[in-house]
Amino acid sequence: MSYEPVLSSEWQVEVDRVTPAEWSAMLDLFEDGNFYQTFAYGAVRWGQKNLSRLVLKRKGEIVAIAQLRIVRPANLRLGMAYLRWGPIIQRRGTDLQSEIVQRMVRSLEEEYVRRRNLLLQIVPNAFEGSPRAQLFKEAFSGFTARRAGPKSYRTFVLDLTPSLEQLRRSLDKKWRNQLNAAERNGLDVVALPANEAYEAFGRMYKQMRTRKTFDTTVDIEEFGRIQEQLPETQRMRILICLREGCPVAGLIAAVMGDSAVYLLGATSDEGLTAKGSYLLQWRLIQELKQKGVKWYDLGGIDPDKNPGVYHFKKGLSGLDICQMSPLTSCNSVLSSSLVKVSMVAREAVRSLSAMAVPRFANRLFVSSKSLLG
C-alpha cells in the first residue's frame, strides 16, 4: 500500500511510491548516498517485497530519502523496520541542514512507529565525533541508543582532501616500503569488463578463503547478484592486479557521493609474494582523488580477531573511529518483545554453531532469521 501524507504546504512525505529506477536516480542526488541504500542491495539482500522507501520533499523538491527493510511475521501489525546507513539527507553541493534532519526523523517515526506499529531501528551513516553524528544525536534525542560494544562497527577513515604527495608521505613507513616493492614487481592494475572482473575476483577470493579458513558473513555470490542489478553510476569498483597477465590480487569498493567504502579484497595463491594488495589500495586512492571523493572508509577492523588485516589497514594512516550506535524507537510492547526474542535466538544460533551442533542450530536459525537474518 502507498500513500502521500502532507505535513504542511511546504513539506510533503511520499511512501512506497517510487520505482527502482526512480530510487536509483534519487540516490545519485545526494552526497551521502551509499551502497547499503541502493535498491540492488536491498532487493538482493532482503527481498524487494520486504522494502519500504520514504521520500521527504520541501516545496516539491526531494531533500531526504530512506530505504528500510520491513520484517513483519505473517503480515501481523508488529515487527521491525530496519534502516541501514541512513537516512540520506545531504543533497550534492549543500551543507547539512538541521531542519531537514528533524523533519525526516519525525516522518520516519510517524510512518513506521505510529502508523505501522513497528520497532524502528536505525544504523546511521555517521561516525562518532563528526558534525554529522552531533546533528543526528540532536535530531534522534527521543530514540534509545544502544551502548557501544565489541560488535560496534569500527574502521579507519582516510581523509582524501590532502594532495597525493601528502597522502603518500603519511603512509606508515613499512606500508610505504611494501608499496615501493610492489611498484618494482612488474605488476599491472586493470579494470576488466564487469563480468570478467568479478569472476576473476571470485576465483581469488575462494582460494584465499580455502587458504586462510576464516569466518565471514560475506556471500560472494550475493555480491555478484547485487553488482548485476546496480545501475552504472552505482556499480562497485573492481580492480584486478596482474603479474605477467595472471590475476594475483583484487579489490572491490563502493564509490558513491563523497565517500568510498572498501568492501572486499583477495590475493591468489600465486600472488602471495607479489604485494599486489598494496598497489591496489594506492591505485584506488589515486582514482578516488581524481573523482573528487573526500573520504575512504577502509571497512571493519578487529585487532584481536583479525590482527593481520588490522595492521594492513592501519598502515594507510586513517582515523581510527567507530560508527554511531544504532538508534531505536518503539511504541509497541509486542514488537519490542518479538525483536528481543529474535535477537536472543540469533545469538543462540551463533553459539551453537561455534560448538559444532549444526543440525539443531540450523533448525533454530530457520525460526529466527525471518526477523533479523
Key attributes of the depicted protein:
alpha+beta; Aminopeptidase; 3 domains; 7-stranded mixed beta sheet; 12 helices; 14 strands
Can you offer a commentary on this structure?
The protein is globular. It is built from twelve helices and 14 strands. Helix content is 40%, strand content 23%.
Radius of gyration: 22 Å
Number of domains: 3
Structural class: alpha+beta
N-to-C SSE string, H for helix and E for strand:
EHHEEEHEHEEHHEHHEEEHEHEEHH
Please report the first level of CATH classification, the CATH class of the largest domain. Answer: Alpha Beta
* Mean model confidence by pLDDT: 87
How much strand? 15-25%
Shape descriptor reads globular
Distance between the termini: 24 Å
Strand order within the widest sheet?
1-2-3-4-5-14-6
Q: What's the CATH H-level homologous superfamily of the largest domain?
A: Gcn5-related N-acetyltransferase (GNAT)
Which helices and strands appear, and what pairs or packs with what?
Blueprint: E1 11-15, H1 20-27, H2 39-46, E2 51-58, E3 61-71, E4 80-84, H3 98-115, E5 119-123, H4 131-139, E6 144-145, E7 154-159, H5 164-170, H6 173-183, E8 187-190, H7 194-212, H8 220-229, E9 237-243, E10 246-256, E11 259-267, H9 276-291, E12 295-300, H10 307-314, E13 319-322, E14 327-329, H11 333-354, H12 358-372
Parallel strand pairs: 4-5, 11-12
Antiparallel strand pairs: 1-2, 2-3, 3-4, 5-14, 6-14, 7-12, 7-13, 8-9, 9-10, 10-11
